[in-house]
From TrEMBL:
Its main location: cytoplasm. This is Ribosome maturation factor RimM. Belongs to the RimM family. Residues 4-85 form the RimM N-terminal domain. The lineage of its organism: Bacteria, Bacillati, Actinomycetota, Actinomycetes, Pseudonocardiales. Residues 161-189 are annotated as: Disordered. The PRC barrel domain binds ribosomal protein uS19. InterPro entries: PRC_barrel-like_sf, PRC_RimM, RimM, RimM_N, RimM_N_sf, Transl_B-barrel_sf. Transmembrane segments: none annotated. An accessory protein needed during the final step in the assembly of 30S ribosomal subunit, possibly for assembly of the head region. Essential for efficient processing of 16S rRNA. May be needed both before and after RbfA during the maturation of 16S rRNA. It has affinity for free ribosomal 30S subunits but not for 70S ribosomes.
């Protein structure tokens, strides 16, 4: 299984560097010189990319890949998702931290055991992480905070929710409306 560790935002300069939005907690490991990643385009095509150089510039990671020799080639990479193998991820020592792929597909249930949906994905927003739940075809976004998600049982295949009144009601009203999808990020807190 592959997980998203970055997304190409734009070309930078004339030598084929790419400005990357980082989606990993360990960019120095993921984007080390010689690291091999899979690039997935919006149309689903994939390509293997080898990191030739990485540097930080004005708070953004700039990458150069052996397979992207110049700005013309770099321009064609805009929006490319950068993927790494989940099996290569380092273990997490913090019991309150999880990789996104560990949460996706878990059964979501209330504290009384009532099943309310399935975790589609973890959405990383400026305000923090959200669990996107599939509730019979409708999407519900649940803040991934201890007060609302008091228990995560990866081995048991479930997350336990204690939502405030009304949080899950909106999803029932929008059943059948497709939600936006996003790539999986490497880790979530």
């Amino acid at each position: 299984m592959e997980v998203v560790v970055g997304r190409v935002a734009k070309a930078h300069g004339i030598r084929g560097e790419l400005a990357v939005d980082v989606r990993t907690d360990s960019p120095d490991e993921r984007f080390a010189e010689g690291a091999v990643l899979t690039g997935r385009s919006r149309n689903g095509g994939t390509t293997r990319l080898t990191v030739a150089a990485a540097r930080w510039h004005s708070g953004r990671l700039l990458l150069r890949f052996e397979e992207v020799p110049d700005r013309t080639a770099a321009e064609q990479q805009r929006g490319l998702l950068l993927l790494a193998e989940a099996g290569e991820l380092p273990p997490i020592d913090d019991p309150d931290e999880f990789y996104d792929h560990e949460l996706e597909g878990l059964r979501a249930e209330l504290t009384d055991g009532t099943v309310v949906g399935t975790v589609r994905e973890v959405v990383h927003s400026p305000g923090g992480e959200l669990l996107s739940l599939d509730r019979d075809g409708a999407e519900a976004l649940v803040p991934f905070v201890r007060e609302i998600v008091p228990e995560v049982d990866v081995d048991g295949g479930r997350v336990v929710l204690d939502p405030p009144e009304g949080l899950l009601d909106d999803a029932a009203e929008t059943a059948g409306t497709p939600g936006d999808t996003a790539g999986r990020d490497e880790s979530s807190r």
